[in-house]
Amino acid sequence: MATQSLLLQGYNGELIKLIDDMRKRKKELLKEMKDEEEEGRHVHNEIRSLTDRLMNINKSLSEKMEARVQFDRAIENTESSYKRLLEASEMMIQGVRHNYKILGEEMPEASSEDHDTLHNFPSRASRMSRLNTNISRNDTLLSRNPTNVTRNNTNTSSKRASRSNSKT
């Protein structure tokens, strides 16, 4: 009976050690879980912050793209008006030359710079080609970013449609 009592005490001691070991492991596991939950909250907050930042960047980019389109239109209109002014000036000079001929007098020659300015002005086709290339490049950049793509593509498509309607 004494041996059974010793054997029982040995089992009891071993059980207590195993239970204590399981409690320590549980405590470590709970600490790891708490740390991971905290890290998860931190990552979630970072994602929210980065998402807000991305939305602000996309909004700013969209506004700047619209401003660029407006600049392109203003430049195109100004260049067109300037070219018409140059053409009108050339016609006026031709009229003055004609009057000099009628009067039998010799007209002084204009400098070559005056003539080159008119003929080196970029054509509407080359300006439109550059504009369409820039718009396509920006559409590609926006399509890589899932936020605001639908809104930006719709705006760009409607702008292109209104531009092509105004050309015809």
From TrEMBL:
Gene Ontology CC annotation, any one: ciliary basal body
The record's listing under InterPro entries reads: SSNA1_fam
Q: Which domain of life is it from?
A: Eukaryota
> Which residue ranges have biased composition labelled Low complexity?
143-168
Q: Where is this region: Disordered?
A: 108-168
User: Ranges of Polar residues compositional bias?
Assistant: 129-142
Coiled-coil spans are: 12-46
Which keywords has UniProt assigned to this entry? Coiled coil
| Transmembrane segments annotated in the record for this chain | none
Q: Return the protein name.
A: Uncharacterized protein
Q: Which organism is it from?
A: Owenia fusiformis
